[in-house]
What we know:
The protein is an all-alpha fold. The protein has one domain (7-113). The chain has helices spanning 7-14, 22-28, 34-38, 62-66, 71-78, 82-89, 98-104. The termini are far apart. Keywords: Plasmid.
Amino acid sequence: MERNLPHASLYKLAVGQSVPTFKAISYLVPYFAPAEWLFFTDEEIPYPIRTLPKWNPDETSVFIQQHKKDWKQTAQKYGIEEENARNIFVNRRANFTLMQMRRMAGEVNPEVWFVKNFDDDK
Length: 122
């Protein structure tokens, strides 16, 4: 597949047999808006619904850049375990889970996890 996501993974996502990973969402942001992954169909989405340019999940997003120094406070605020937060923000060995992103989505526009620079007026 064009975005290096196996057909089997897409099928499992489509039929609800698997929870989308950060990597899967990253590969699909040109096709599905990030906010659509994090809110249920009966919930109002407080952000613009728009797709994004291709995103490499190994890149450092604007959210990670903004919170690299205050990662402990960010982790505490959003209920992320310290070791996991260190691997996300400092060591870059891990990414957010869908549930972590969903918890933050009330205050954080999901697009910031999939871009290097963020302009809310795009």
